[in-house]
Amino acid sequence: GENVEQHPSTLSVQEGDSAVIKCTYSDSASNYFPWYKQELGKGPQLIIDIRSNVGEKKDQRIAVTLNKTAKHFSLHITETQPEDSAVYFCAASIRGAQKLVFGQGTRLTINP
Amino acid sequence: GAVVSQHPSWVICKSGTSVKIECRSLDFQATTMFWYRQFPKQSLMLMATSNEGSKATYEQGVEKDKFLINHASLTLSTLTVTSAHPEDSSFYICSATKTSGKNTQYFGPGTRLTVL
């Protein structure tokens, strides 16, 4: 089955700098890759997603890139702000399936 | 919008009792809902997939007789933890996908279960 690896497990950046979180997946049949942000004690919130027919997607300060050949995708957050501090999860879904397979999560801390 | 609610947000119960958690899609119809469990500082673990009007599909290692799932309508799924024990204490989160949309999952706020 699908396996998703996420790195790093923790990331600390200075406010205003950029943060990058990377994920790799194992099943080449995966075609949907969402990213979720989870604040303490809350449910995950979808922040951006990408499908395998595109290589990059951007929404204001957040962008996701996908390399299907290498089977990895990354989350890029620019101009980081304290409110970006949270745990971020990547996930992958195999074409035709509804289930998501999640990465292990990255705890992002923005230092003021 | 795509709002999913859960009730209760937290619950404390005695060992051996049963607890029901509700998951509702507030502004869309959801043919499929998912139930996850999350232990502290860990990722989300899928417990089961719930389809409206049919039996839930449980992941390997999840006891279907202990975690009863009912998805009786397009906006409501319930998870009942039967004969709860302290090891069942966890954060339970549901998600839902729109009937009319793609496989994007929208998550509820979670329910913190503590079994004494």
User: Would you report the number of β strands of chain B?
Assistant: 11
> Approximately how much beta-strand content do the residues of chain A carry?
over 45%
Catalogue the unreliable spans of chain B: none
Mass-distribution shape of chain A: globular
Uncertain ranges of chain A: none
Helicity level of chain B: under 10%
The most extensive interface, with participating residues per chain, is: A-B, 20 and 21 residues
Distance between the termini of chain A: 41 Å
Describe the global form of chain B: globular
Task: Give me the oligomer status.
Answer: heterodimer
Instruction: Report strand % of chain B.
Output: over 45%
The major pleated sheet of chain B works out as: 7 strands, mixed
Describe the protein's architecture and organization.
The complex is a heterodimer of chains A (112) and B (116). Chain A starts with a strand and ends with a strand. In chain A, the strands form two sheets. In chain A, strands 2, 4, 5, 9, 10 and 11 form a six-stranded mixed sheet that branches. A five-stranded antiparallel sheet of chain A has the order 1-3-8-7-6, with no helix packed on it. With 112 residues, chain A is an all-beta fold. Chain A is built from no helices and eleven strands. By secondary structure, chain B is mainly beta. Chain B is 0% helix and 51% strand. Chain B contains no helices and eleven strands. Chain B has strands spanning 4-7, 10-13, 19-25, 32-38, 45-51, 57-58, 67-73, 76-81, 90-97, 106-107, 111-115. In chain B, the strands form two sheets. In chain B, strands 2, 4, 5, 6, 9, 10 and 11 form a seven-stranded mixed sheet that branches. In chain B, strands 1-3-8-7 form a four-stranded antiparallel sheet, with no helix packed on it. In chain B, a hairpin with a 2-residue loop joins strand 7 (67-73) and strand 8. The radius of gyration of chain B is 13 Å and the shape is globular. Chain A binds chain B through residues 32, 34, 36, 41-46, 49, 89, 93, 97-100, 102-105, and chain B through 4, 6, 32, 34, 42-44, 46, 49, 93, 97, 102-110, 112.
